[in-house]
Amino acid sequence: MSGSYGDLFVTADDGIRLYARDYGPLTGHASLPVVGLPGLARTSEDFHDIAEALSRDPSRPRRVLCLDYRGRGRSEWDRDWRNYDVKVELNDTLQVLAAARIQKAIFIGTSRGGLITMALSAVRPELIAGAVLNDVGPVLEARGLKRIRSYVGKLPTPGTVSEAVDLLRQRSQSQFPHYSDEQWAKMARGTWRETEGGFVLDYDPNLTKTLDNLDLDAPLPDLWPLFEALKPFPVLAIRGDHSDLLTADTLQMMQDRHSRLTAVTVPDQGHAPSLDGDLLPVIRDFVSAVDGRD
């Protein structure tokens, strides 16, 4: 798999070593690059299929950069779990973009990655050409956050790939009732990595402390001002039909408030839809339209 992308390592301001997968041509083309920002406890692995599709498009190959936040994937863990924070990760993302010499891009943000994308549009709008928000919006449902909190950093350690698949299926069957074995295996590969000593989580377990400290019975922050910052840009908003983090009502409000937003609901999937299958041509067409418009 690594033959299709290069490894980019960047040192953050505080010395943490950050990692990103770098797909496709780096020079010699005029296409806008795409940047993939994953969910809370996910990694660049989640973007492999869409990155392959975009970077190897025979008519218009483009660069695709997919990040691992600090404490996830191949990026270094932070000794202070309090730095697993959207503001810190936003700054890390800016440093990676600068090191990669990306001055403008189309961003694909899944869950937490969508929050970072909205924040980017507020603080550095010149970087944004368009955005894909995967199952995230300006209203986060406490029910979904509680479900995520129940398993991040708390999953048992599987002994085999089959056990890993079973663990994920038991916890997320209601979100993905018709997932294939290969889709569960793909989710497992983005959750654990296999070492000589067995399987380990592909993220710092201390990430759970950022959720444990949230009072999910109190009103959540109002994120509509961040969403409003995306108004100048075309947006593709994706929602899983079974999502417990982004409701259909919120998606409708997003459409009502953003004239350049296209909404897509993925049947039989929850939080967050896999960026594969029928979504590949949808995202590819959106990216091509944004590039042609830019």
Q: What is the number of strand segments?
A: 10
With strands numbered from the N-terminus, the spatial order across the biggest sheet is 1-2-4-3-5-6-9-10
Order of helices and strands: EEEHEHEHEHHHEEHHEHEH
Task: From the alpha carbons, calculate the radius of gyration and give it in angstroms.
Answer: 18 Å
CATH superfamily: Alpha/Beta hydrolase fold, catalytic domain
Q: Could you give a short account of the major beta sheet?
A: 8 strands, mixed
CATH class: Alpha Beta
Query: Whole-Å distance between the termini?
Result: 32 Å
CATH architecture: 3-Layer(aba) Sandwich
Percentage of residues in helical conformation: 25-40%
Task: Explain the overall architecture.
By secondary structure, this protein is of the alpha/beta class. The protein starts with a strand and ends with a helix. It is built from 10 helices and 10 strands. It has one domain (2-141, 221-293): 3-Layer(aba) Sandwich (Rossmann fold), CATH 3.40.50. The model has no long low-confidence stretch (mean pLDDT 93).
